[in-house]
């Protein structure tokens, strides 16, 4: 009776779940991703500032930079509005025209924005407040008052819509404050310039953007000539002419000029190269190209990579004893590169009691992952100071696990995990709260299966390792020394060593 | 008694028991398909759980969507303690309650669209009656327990952990709920 009723309930509920449920969730998540990507992109976006500053000197100008190419997939939703009157400010808004952030671009802008809280207001409210403040500070007292408004949105219709809105907002704000200025309109399709140059010169879109911006920065620089130069030649030129590339790329003073230029181009490429396929699409394309059934393949890697303005998935999978490696164009699904490798299956097994398979199983069980998800890189017998040890290395998703398994007892002697950050979106790992030293010790004790009373702690230190906070916990039980690295944000054991 | 109940619970939640900390950490790492994997493993159980709170399919869909969004957003704050499902259920409960608050003019159970739409093409009278009974005669807690049990194949101790209730409470409530359901179904027949 129970089972019958429960089974009825179960299938009744199952029928209620809409078929497109996951698609809806995915859409929500894509929007969420776009939002975070936008925030990153906004921080990086300095490309047009140099250009706009020049024009700002002459006119009140409204530029709608739009068109199909830019940020086609990643920035569907947002606009960036620059207002330059010498105090220059940059307003970034979401797709509902709500203000995400207002930033000063120069020092006058800093003064202007001082004490203003415009986040989360509507764009028209922010524009009104900014213009009002400019009037108060006397920026429109002269006869030749000038404002430059630059609107950026991937959709030219939306860009011009916002342009019209901002212009009428400014107009209203000026009138309300009894100030006046002439307004000129101009639409510039800057992206098609970059695309044209990229195509003509056979260079990446990112390099084309950089070259165009560089040409705008210095006199007598020809974009076509610059396009033909290598990165090191460009670097030499920038150095020789003393050009301030900080205006057109994010400049990191810790890096060399060359690295900065290379990064700037890569950033532009990342923002510009379209990604249409999901990782699952790319996997399917690779399987089809290899003629392998999905059921027979175990995936080792499916990662979005970017290289010189092209976005592609690197897909790696094993079928039988063959490892396939594909590069799938993330926009078109075309196979751009493929490799096949037959692997040798020679594993040394001397004095060991465990087989390599058993060692693998131990490591996988210890990691708490599914054997099906783990792609073994190698499992080899080694001699570590006379102790036969299996070195087992495997990957689950982005994480690489490195184990040493005692080949006689099967004991886990040490392990290490390393997580590769995905290339797609780097969520800034800002730990909201860190665990305490005591919690870290408890995690280590629990893992070692040792009670606190039996352990004598030698050190527990909070360290910064590669931008993340890590507790180093060391203690001794009798003659055995335990060493742990524990992620202070997640409580995850990153490294473990026992002697 | 406890042993008997455990035996009685029937099919085992093969899917849910494979949800690990790693599944949530993979989301933090932005791994491709991480969310989809988690969705595949959990959505049915979560749907049943949320439905038991909202009693409305539209609310359930919205809250389920919000649940995965919230998991995606706050996966970084998840502290891996080997109880990912308890965390996810907390998120789902919050989403369901928020949805209830949001929808003031709540569609009453009698007018629920699933009756006319979702199951219209399906003439399995038993399934329809079972769901109707579960949604009408059971208390919210009983409904949650029964749906978790039935839909997700959760074991009672897993339900206890997800709902943060003592195992004994879950066991007695489950018993009572099943009796109530049986009585209601017999009355219908």
Number of E strands of chain B: 0
Distance between the termini of chain A: 57 Å
What portion of residues of chain B belong to β-strands?
A: under 5%
Q: What is the strand tally of chain A?
A: 17
- How do the strands of the widest beta sheet of chain A line up side by side? 10-11-12-13-17-16-15-14
Distance between the termini of chain B: 30 Å
Q: Which two chains have the most extensive interface, and how many residues on each? A: A-B, 53 and 61 residues
Radius of gyration of chain A: 29 Å
Which shape of chain B, going by the Cα principal axes? globular
**What Rg of chain B do the Cα atoms give?**
17 Å
Q: How would you state the average pLDDT of chain B, rounded?
A: 77
Please tell me the total number of domains of chain B: 1
Q: Can you walk me through this structure?
A:
The complex is a heterodimer of chains A (499) and B (189). Chain A is built from 14 helices and 17 strands. Chain A is α+β, with helices and mostly antiparallel strands. Chain A has 5 domains: 159 residues, no CATH class; 67 residues, no CATH class; 61 residues, Nuclear Transport Factor 2, Chain: A, CATH 3.10.450.40; 74 residues, Nuclear Transport Factor 2, Chain: A (Roll); 71 residues, Nuclear Transport Factor 2, Chain: A (Roll), CATH 3.10.450. Chain A has an 8-stranded antiparallel beta sheet, covered by helices on one side. In chain A, strands 1-5-2-3-4 form a 5-stranded mixed beta sheet, sandwiched between helices. In chain A, strands 6-7-8-9 form a 4-stranded antiparallel beta sheet. In chain A, a hairpin with a 5-residue loop joins β16 and β17. With 189 residues, chain B is mostly helical. Chain B has a single domain, classed as RNA polymerase sigma factor, region 2, helix turn helix motif (Rna Polymerase Sigma Factor, Chain: A). In chain B, 71% of the residues lie in helices and 0% in strands. The interface between A and B is large, with 53 and 61 residues.
């Amino acid at each position: 009776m129970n089972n019958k009723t429960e089974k009825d309930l179960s299938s009744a509920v199952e029928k209620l779940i809409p078929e497109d449920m996951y698609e809806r969730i995915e859409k929500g998540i894509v929007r969420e991703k776009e939002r975070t990507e936008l925030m990153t992109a906004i921080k990086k976006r300095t490309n047009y500032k140099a250009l706009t500053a020049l024009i700002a000197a002459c006119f009140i100008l409204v530029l709608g930079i739009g068109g199909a190419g830019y940020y086609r997939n990643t920035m569907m939703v947002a606009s960036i509005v620059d207002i330059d009157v010498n105090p220059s400010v940059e307003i970034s808004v979401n797709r509902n025209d709500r203000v995400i952030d207002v930033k000063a671009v120069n020092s006058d802008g800093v003064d202007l924005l001082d004490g203003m809280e415009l986040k989360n207001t509507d764009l028209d409210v922010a524009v009104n407040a900014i213009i009002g403040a400019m009037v108060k500070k006397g920026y429109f007292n002269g006869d030749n008052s000038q404002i430059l408004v630059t609107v950026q949105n991937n959709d030219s219709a939306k860009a011009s819509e916002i342009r019209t809105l901002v212009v009428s907002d400014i107009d209203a704000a000026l009138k309300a404050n009894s100030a006046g200025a002439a307004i000129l309109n101009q639409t510039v399709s800057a992206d098609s310039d970059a695309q044209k140059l990229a195509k003509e010169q056979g260079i990446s879109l990112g390099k084309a953007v950089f070259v165009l911006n560089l040409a705008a920065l210095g006199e007598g620089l020809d974009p076509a000539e610059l396009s033909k130069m290598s990165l090191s030649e460009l670097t030499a030129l920038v150095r020789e002419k003393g050009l301030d590339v900080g205006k057109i790329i994010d400049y990191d003073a810790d890096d060399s000029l060359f690295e900065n230029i290379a990064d700037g181009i890569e950033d532009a490429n990342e923002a510009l190269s379209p990604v249409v396929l999901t990782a699952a699409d790319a996997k399917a394309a690779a399987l089809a190209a290899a003629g392998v059934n999905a059921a027979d393949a175990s995936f080792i890697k499916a990662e979005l990579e970017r290289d010189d303005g092209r976005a592609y998935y690197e897909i790696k999978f094993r079928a039988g004893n063959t490892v396939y490696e594909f590069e799938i164009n993330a926009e078109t699904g075309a196979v751009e590169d493929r490799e096949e490798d037959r692997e040798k299956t020679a594993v040394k097994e001397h004095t060991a009691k465990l087989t390599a398979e058993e060692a693998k199983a131990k490591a996988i069980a210890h990691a708490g992952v599914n054997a099906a998800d783990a792609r073994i890189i190698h499992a080899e017998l080694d001699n570590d100071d006379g102790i036969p040890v299996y070195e087992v290395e495997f990957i689950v998703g982005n994480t690489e696990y490195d184990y040493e398994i005692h080949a006689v007892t099967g004991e886990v002697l040490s392990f290490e995990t390393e997580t590769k950050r995905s290339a797609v979106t780097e969520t800034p790992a800002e730990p909201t709260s860190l665990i305490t030293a005591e919690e870290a010790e408890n995690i280590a004790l629990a893992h070692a299966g040792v009670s606190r009373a039996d352990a004598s702690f030698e050190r527990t230190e909070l360290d910064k390792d590669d931008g993340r906070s890590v507790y180093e916990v060391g203690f001794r039980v009798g003659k055995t020394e335990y060493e742990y690295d524990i992620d202070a944000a997640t409580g995850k054991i990153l490294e473990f060593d026992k002697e | 008694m406890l042993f008997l109940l455990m035996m009685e619970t029937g099919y085992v939640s093969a899917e849910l028991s494979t949800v690990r900390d790693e599944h949530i950490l993979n989301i933090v790492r932005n791994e491709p398909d991480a969310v989809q994997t988690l969705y595949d493993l959990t959505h049915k159980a979560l749907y049943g759980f949320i439905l038991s709170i909202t009693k409305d399919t539209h609310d359930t869909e919205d809250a389920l969507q919000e649940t995965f969004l919230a998991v995606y957003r706050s996966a970084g704050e998840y502290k891996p303690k080997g109880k990912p499902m308890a965390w996810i259920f907390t998120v789902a409960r919050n989403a369901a309650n928020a949805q209830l608050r949001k929808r003031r003019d709540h569609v009453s159970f009698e007018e629920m669209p699933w009756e006319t739409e979702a199951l219209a093409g399906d003439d399995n009278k038993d399934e329809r009656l079972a769901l109707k009974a579960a949604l009408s005669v059971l208390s919210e807690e009983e409904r949650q327990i029964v749906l978790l049990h039935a839909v997700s194949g959760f074991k009672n101790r897993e339900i206890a952990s997800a709902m943060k209730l003592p195992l004994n409470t879950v066991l007695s409530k489950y018993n009572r709920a099943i009796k109530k359901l049986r009585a209601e179904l017999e009355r219908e027949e």
